[in-house]
Write the structure tokens for this entry.
Amino acid sequence: MNNIGPPVQPAVPNQPNTIQVDGDQNLKEALGFVKDWVTSLIGIETAAIGAIGAFFEFKAEKHLSVPDAVLLDGAMISFLVSIICGAYVLNMLPGCAQRTQTDKSQDIYSLKTKGAKTLGWWAIRFRYAFLVGLILFVTFIIVRTLPTRSYQVSAASTAQLEAYTPPAEMGDKSRPYRPGNKNRNQ
């Protein structure tokens, strides 16, 4: 049987919160996972911003209702904040890969570069801004696809309304019976 990579170390018994650190190998692998995660979400956010731009380009009406504008503006701002935080995360990765963890019970999100903010600080903002933007964007799509009631009256309906004349007396037998109509002679 061929084993690819270093052997996996078993978890430390009776210490569930301890992180197994195998030198720099685990650190670099974890930072690689963070890089893949951030770049994939930034790609999704960029596609969502492109979809919003395509919506305005191919839409006949250029004005949105207030709720639609709030949802789209909120989604765009959240996606932009998330992309900025993701750029900071990606910027920190090479510096974090060069550092070694002094406290082995800490994870990679506790690493810092020259700034005062940790990798975790930027990653949390990246994650939550993405989630807020995604929720607003999906809500916008759902609101736009829900059927709306149209109260516009067609020309045929207008003609029928103009041609309608009410019966002369309330006891007119030509009117259809409606339950609760006490004025009708039966």
About this structure: The two ends are 94 Å apart (CA to CA). Residues 23-143 form one domain.
